[in-house]
Amino acid sequence: MPEYLLAFILAVGVSLFITPVVIMIASKTGALDKPDSRKVHKKPIPRIGGLGIYIACMVSLVTVVAFANLSGELFMGVVGLIISGTMMMIVGLIDDYKNLPAKVKLLGQIIASAVLVIIFDVRIDFITDPFGDYIYLEWFAIPATIFWLVGLTNTVNLIDGLDGLAAGVSAIAAITILLVALEDNILLIAVLTAALAGAAIGFLFYNFNPACIFMGDSGALFLGFMLAGISVIGAVKCAATIALIVPILALGLPILDTTFAIVRRWRGGVPIFKPDKGHLHHRLLGLGFTQRQAVLLMYVISALLGLSAVALTEVSAQIAILILLIVIVAILYGAKKIGIFKMRNA
Q1: What is the mean pLDDT of residues 164-185?
Q2: In sequence order, which ranges of the chain are alpha helices (DSSP H)?
Q3: Closest by Cα among 193, 159, 26, 169 to 97
Q4: Phi, psi at 287, each rounded to 5°
Q5: 129/117 Cα distance (integer angstroms)
Q6: pTM of the full structure
Q7: pLDDT tens profile 232-291
Q8: Coil, strand or helix at 155
Q9: Which of 70, 98, 333, 335 is buried most deeply by CB count within 10 Å?
């Protein structure tokens, strides 16, 4: 059995087994997400599901990677990803219990990212331009990589607004990167993404509408960070620009939703970290979609973006950029039509 398939099956199995235990722990320790005017659920729901996703992913990774023959540099990169991912999950877990101030949570994210970039030397050292020439980032590599990690981490966190949405979109993104990794014969990336996708899919059994448990910040931060970190490791192994474009397109939905939220709040004169009811899923519910319909539609959009990302790896850089621009223009047009740039009360 291929290592990536083993990692996937193991992660799904552990996730299915451990999540009920996490539900029990959450209920006994008071880790409950209570309804309010901005949320769509009507009763308190356990919200530390990220702990189950984390355990399933780590059990799978440690089991499979332990038997893989990795070079010293790659092994240290995986160790760094595990340690930093653990730190990110802990930041989210504390927030699930204590509701950390936004600035404190952001600082924790930066520290976790800095550990991976500075201590374990996992960073984006160069990118390639449309003509195939290398552009070395030099001293800018460290802050650019930290920005990448923190940015992608928060895009997943901000889209976590409906049952199964963040877990499903993250699983689709992970599978997209997995397919590209298999196409390029990068086994390590395939194993990492398979474990992440398996943990998220197993969790979806309990998280899809009507959800028994939410992933909380512990899950959203962990999934976002792992996807971002895996893509940086992938950039070391192949053409850096393509390795980074793939997750950007695979996570295009939450990335653009986050961008829209920042623009919307800036135009409305409110702090960019202040929650509102203007996200894409809120707009779809406002148009009459049920939770399941809205989530399934966003799955389809994410899957189409993921397939586009896979296709981009087969064309020239110039055509890839053209396709990317067309996709962005189409999404911006659709976003404007549903009024996503207009403020709504939180």
Answers
A1: 91
A2: 3-29, 50-65, 72-98, 102-114, 141-158, 165-183, 187-207, 216-237, 240-250, 252-268, 280-286, 291-312, 317-337
A3: 26
A4: -85, -5
A5: 23
A6: 0.88
A7: 887 655 555 566 778 888 888 888 787 777 777 777 677 666 666 667 777 787 778 888
A8: helix
A9: 335
